[in-house]
Amino acid sequence: MSDNLPRNYNEYDHVPSTSSVNTPHSRSPEIFNHGSIYSLDSTNDKTQEITRHKSVTPSNTAKPSALNKKKTSKSDLNSSGIKVIRCSEQSLDNVDAAISNAENVLKSIEKSPIDRNTTMFKNLCLSENEEVCEDIVLTGCKKKRKKSRDENPSIRKYTQKVSSRIVNNGSSSSKMETDMDNININSPVDIEEESNDSLDSTSTTTVVPNLVMSTPKTKNRVKKNSNSLLSSNSYRDFRLTQSKDTASITFPSILENCDPAYQYIVSDRRVQDFIRNAKMMEPDDEVNAYDPTEIEEIINDEIILGTHYYLVKWKKWSRGFNTWERYGALYNSQKLILKYIDNKKTDEHVNRSKYVNGIELMMSRKMISMIFEIFRTETGLCLVGILPEVITGVLNSHEDGPIRKQTLQLHSLQNFLTSISLGYFRQQQLSKLQLWEIEINAMTKSSQIKVVNNMDLEGPPDFFGYIKDYLPQKNIIIPDDPPIGCSCRRNCLSPEECCYEMSGCLKAYDNNKKIVVPPGNPVFECNKKCICTEACPNRVVQLGSKVNICIYKTSKYGWGIKSAQDIQKGQFVGKYIGEIITVKESEQRLKKGTSSLDNMWNLDFDDSQNYKYIIDGTHFANFTYFINHSCDANLNVYAVWINCLDRNLPELALFASRDISAGEQLTTDYFSRCNQDTLKKNGTRCQCDMKNCQGYYF
Ligand SMILES: C[S@@+](CC[C@H](N)C(=O)[O-])C[C@H]1O[C@@H](n2cnc3c(N)ncnc32)[C@H](O)[C@@H]1O
């Protein structure tokens, strides 16, 4: 989103608006005219829980895992603190096999760079890594003191250390101990396989109400092939058993969740040297220099063997994927280099220490892309499995033999190790995505959300706080006490004067809870003062979405969402939420550039001139944050009132505008929510590729 930061803040009238969905025939609900509603002395006591994702912290990634530390005796350590395993004859055979396989891979890359045959990588796998993978186990329920709502911070920061995240409150119980003991997180290889599972739409909708997640204190080795928390199945089981209790789950740190072989490789100084030298093999390619618009910042430089390298932070790639690039590859990015040099003069120390996390990829982005292509398969990305002792053998082997052979070996090794390193990063990425998925699902009541990135190595989006309800600015109160409700018979199936009628509006839903009124009609659901139950057809948005969705990386415009099941026309899909801020505050945020226009909606359903509030989803939102624009969108937006009857504070609900098949991307029409007059002047190029694509959106 960083490239789409606000344009001139005077374009403020582009902020998505709900007024545009208000048809000329619809009118403000009568209930709005009861002045008393607006002077209700209700307080907004909704303390909601928020998880905030941040990218992995330098200290997390730089530290060797506890796992390795435990297994390594002092005498085994070499200068880099890594256990060195002497090669047996068999290992040396493996070494030869490794090198010849690496060479085959190299040849295949050269011959057919687009060939994504997985067997190349299967060949590269010298042995199954099951034996060396430490499975990580959930430690089972520890009786935790119940936390009151007041104790819970309203905004919690998510770090990869996963420090004590309270997902919900409740009483503790010993029942959990037995249930939880069977839940574990499998090896990364298992995770990779499971990451491509599709969501089962028939899965349970039971919520995890009381869950405390914490950093690992103990780690047990568990049986191979045991259930993985990270698989959809065990996750569902887990959710089913924990309905009333407080559970303690020990999460592995990201590093610990990686195959030790990978950790071993990327932290070995000699391996780093190999990879570093691999850069020297690339041509100094000024013709194909990178497009500077892809680069966010240059953050470090180093001279290696007489060649000047720059550490590049790429737009839309997290810092873990900073790469070292030769000057030639940055030929068109002179301005960025100058800017870096300028910054360096003024703030060298901060600049240098800011991003360095010890395991930056010591290779160019081109090399990453090339090797990354080999990892990619039809169904996702595959990984290399390898034993640490094999790597040791490979590393040691190049020291003997004739020079020509050594050179060849070195060449193969460089590529081989680069591939392995990428596998390591893939593991890290998958772990991060899975942890984020768990966090999101713990906050999502009735549906399941899957997170998938098979496009590149990026982890969860940075700086994104996941919330489940509006987050009002400090001085804004969202009333939660409607003055009136209906008393229709048969759960409103025989309406006398149902809520929508009292409000002078149309009946929005049919008896199957599908929306039937066109966009622009206000929706009045039954509220807490009504006598009807949840089965009432006029209670839909308030019960939460039942649609399983997948947040995934698209090939064209970053993250998006797609349906993980078939959706029927009129079905409720989700609420657009974010911070509720005043118009003035939104102007300031846009001016300062701290919020993005792309993520703002005016709450101007009732009055497009004098509305008070804006939803700002830039920093806090739910999955709807990722909805992309399409000129042929399949979701419509409606303003819905439930327990808050303030005309300025409707909920924004998304409903399917047609039948949608599983796997289809879910989109809205950004046009429908902004001032059409100035569109062309300020439009952003649209890449929806629909037949009716207008070529741009606001
Ligand atoms: C509300 S965000 C949607 C999530 C976003 N794709 C992401 O990765 O965070 C809107 C941004 O997505 C991208 N986007 C959405 N729809 C698009 C479209 N039809 N064509 C091009 N870019 C689009 C633009 O970068 C836009 O600023």
From TrEMBL:
GO terms for molecular function: histone H3K9 methyltransferase activity; zinc ion binding. Residues 162-174 have a biased composition (Low complexity). Residues 484-544 form the Pre-SET domain. Residues 1-79, 142-182 are annotated as: Disordered. Keywords: Centromere, Chromosome, Metal-binding, Methyltransferase, S-adenosyl-L-methionine, Transferase, Zinc. Signal peptide: none annotated. Residues 547-671 form the SET domain. It holds the Pfam family SET. SMART domains: CHROMO, PreSET, SET. One of its GO terms (biological process) is methylation. Residues 16-26 have a biased composition (Polar residues). Residues 43-52 have a biased composition (Basic and acidic residues). One of its GO terms (cellular component) is nucleus. InterPro entries: Chromo-like_dom_sf, Chromo/chromo_shadow_dom, Chromo_domain, H3K9_Histone-Lys_N-MTase, Pre-SET_dom, SET_dom, SET_dom_sf. Residues 293-352 form the Chromo domain. It is found in: Chromosome, Centromere. This is Histone-lysine N-methyltransferase. It comes from Acyrthosiphon pisum (Pea aphid). The lineage of its organism: Eukaryota, Metazoa, Ecdysozoa, Arthropoda, Hexapoda.
